[in-house]
Amino acid sequence: MEKQTERINCLIIGSGPAGYTAAIYAARAGLKPVLYQGLQPGGQLTITNDVENYPGYPEGVMGPQMMTDFQKQAERFGTDVRFGMVTSVDFSHGAHKVVVDGSHTLEADAVIISTGASAKWLGLESEERLNGHGVSACAVCDGFFYRGLDVAIVGGGDTACEEASYLAKLCRKVYMIVRRDELRASRIMQERVKSLPNIEIFWNSETVEVLGDHGVEGVRLRNVRNGEVRDIPVKGFFVAIGHQPNTSVFDGQLKMDEQGYIVTEKGSTRTSVEGVFACGDAQDKVYRQAITAAGTGCMAALDAERYLAGISVH
Fold it and tell me: Fewest CB atoms within 10 A around its CB: which of 109, 172, 245, 296?
């Protein structure tokens, strides 16, 4: 017997600041949103310890607690929060069909995508073990905790240079670990980094291990040309080798850029498919902050509300 398709008004895919904010607005507007949390309920903030740059938390807040607060607020207004992962979609023929966990099929009048992006990591055991305890993928988020201390950052592109420059304003010393003998960053970013006296670049170097038991104490480097190994004492270790948007399930269904970020119309969250909206880091490769993600989540819910008002009244 064929399983029946569940028909819903508004579907939200993803559960970080963007998804939960979209849910709060959509629920208060009477859209009866259904939100699927995905593989990592709460998104990247669930692996972030202290969040001090989000308004409304004067003493700061733990990332997981913040996402719990967001979820409770969304549920308070009637959001149907479900655990599950969207495994395929079909946005052709004017319908928005979505399959969850490979078995449950939904058809939604409007879809809000807030699947976020994931930082690329080096893949070291020590890096994973110390993630949130001195290891970070966001200098803007966590650099404040290392004021006056020595830190290291991995990467040679624009993002790495930008984050190294940011850290240089806060930290005593910033060591850049660059695998090649040159930076990949734009010339202006290269010049900025090289002009800062407290940034030192280790060329032709790769990270072997992040040192420390309960927090970062240093980093072990290997010179890729001569094999020389050296340890550098640091208190923070930042990885800036890029992000990967969690959008592969929408490949071929929505317009994306060459990196896989969903393309939205300027000044809105509308995608290339009518009735499908994207918010948060799935479409933002510039800012990538909780507050900006929440802002676009609000926009997506308002865009969805206007779209639904134009096609039907529920």
Answer: 172
